[in-house]
């Protein structure tokens, strides 16, 4: 029989978690680097304004590039100069410390709480400018402006869109026994600036981003039974979408943002349904005596993946978004569940169980090749970054629950943890509005 605690966690009340303060920012620790990372120098930005600089923009950019696994930023102590504009750059000095690229810039205060960020990117060995731009920002948006610069630098040097100026949603738990507090938070992709979306004395589960990055769907047990809500991240306005008898679980947005795929047991057995967000029209997609759960849309919106034990063990299946015969996609191993689809639709990230261990694996849909990326005992809830380069997931570290991220080739790893407490069920936002 299917392991109900693991496979059907989206169908049950959240597991009890011990923990302390849960509202601190996530701290990132790089646990495995990449040989051959591109050496780059990011010089502290110049500052023109009253008082001290409002934000260390260069430090944010350096940290972003480092945690991508593709770059190795030169530590500040090894910088050979501090230019803030291109005419001050002496390329031969930077060649001596073997950096391939150089980022410089300056911040100018244009009005109270308003700033102008100017930056330049150089190819050190060619002695040429690759990129130059000016970005306006308010005080509250300086970190996001810094992430935007990181995205631009990353894309220029790799040809791949950067995902630093995105966010993650996650669940934390604090307190003990009957005095637990469950919190749904949204933070920048580097774990900073956490924003509380909802706090509850009852479990919160399964956060899922809308395609525009403006809303989050989730499961709440506030009324001691599972209900699905969608909530605006900025305003906090929320709406109940599903409160059927029995299970209401695992919401997943369609690519056009018009429907949710979800797991309901309103007809007796856990099945996959779709629900129109505007009109409330409900359509049953699967019809099986087995447990069908954890839906995930393919990027073209034409089909839905889900986990089912209809073949005797938990495996990933694919079905038309309008229903019909399901096709089994996974065959390697006795347990494959909780699929997330890469943005280009070519890969699946999933929980792969074998020998009593549950690790994150990636399946190439064209070749059928599966690659195990992690080495934990109980890794779960994989979620692709919007550029498809990284996967964030939940795992254990000692007696605590933390988040971790791994590159899709398995070469680079990092851990995201709270100073105290536990964190789980990550969901990486789409690019959304920039």
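Sequence proposed for the structure above (434 residues):
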């Amino acid at each position: 029989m299917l392991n109900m605690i693991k496979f059907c966690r989206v169908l049950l009340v959240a597991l009890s978690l011990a923990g302390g303060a849960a509202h601190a920012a996530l701290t990132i620790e790089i646990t495995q680097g990449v040989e051959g990372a591109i050496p780059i120098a990011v010089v502290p930005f110049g500052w023109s304004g009253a008082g001290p600089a409002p934000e260390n923009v260069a430090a944010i950019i350096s940290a972003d590039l480092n945690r991508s696994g593709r770059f190795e930023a030169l530590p500040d102590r090894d910088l050979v100069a501090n230019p803030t504009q291109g005419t001050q750059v002496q390329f031969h000095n930077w060649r001596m410390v073997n950096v391939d690229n150089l980022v410089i810039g300056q911040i100018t205060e244009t009005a109270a709480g308003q700033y102008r960020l100017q930056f330049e990117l150089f190819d050190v060995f060619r002695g040429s400018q690759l990129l130059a731009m000016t970005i306006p920002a308010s005080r509250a948006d300086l970190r996001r402006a810094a992430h935007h610069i990181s995205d631009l630098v990353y894309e220029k040097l790799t040809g791949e869109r950067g995902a630093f100026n995105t966010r993650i949603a996650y669940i934390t738990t604090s307190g003990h026994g009957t005095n637990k507090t469950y919190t749904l938070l949204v933070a920048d992709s580097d774990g900073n600036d956490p924003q509380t979306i909802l706090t509850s004395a009852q479990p919160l589960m399964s956060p899922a981003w809308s395609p525009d990055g403006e809303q989050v769907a989730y499961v709440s047990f506030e009324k001691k039974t599972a209900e699905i809500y969608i909530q605006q991240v900025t305003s906090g306005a929320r709406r109940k979408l599903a409160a059927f008898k029995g299970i209401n679980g695992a919401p997943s947005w369609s690519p056009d943002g018009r429907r949710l795929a979800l797991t309901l047991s309103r007809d007796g057995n856990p099945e996959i349904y779709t629900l129109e967000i505007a009109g409330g029209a409900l359509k049953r997609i699967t019809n099986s005596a087995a447990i069908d759960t954890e839906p995930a849309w393919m990027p073209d919106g034409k089909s839905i993946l889900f986990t089912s034990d209809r073949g005797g063990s938990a495996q990933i299946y694919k079905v038309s978004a309008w229903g019909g015969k399901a096709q089994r996609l996974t065959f390697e191993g006795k347990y494959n569940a909780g699929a997330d689809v890469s943005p280009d639709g070519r890969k699946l990230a999933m929980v792969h169980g074998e020998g009593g261990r549950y690790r994150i694996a990636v399946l190439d849909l064209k070749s059928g090749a599966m690659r195990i990326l992690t080495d934990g005992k109980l890794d779960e809830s994989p979620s692709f970054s919007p550029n498809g380069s990284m996967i964030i997931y939940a795992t254990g570290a000692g007696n605590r629950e933390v988040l971790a991220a791994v590159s899709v080739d398995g070469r680079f790893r990092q851990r995201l943890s709270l100073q105290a407490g536990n964190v789980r069920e990550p969901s990486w936002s789409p690019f959304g509005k920039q």
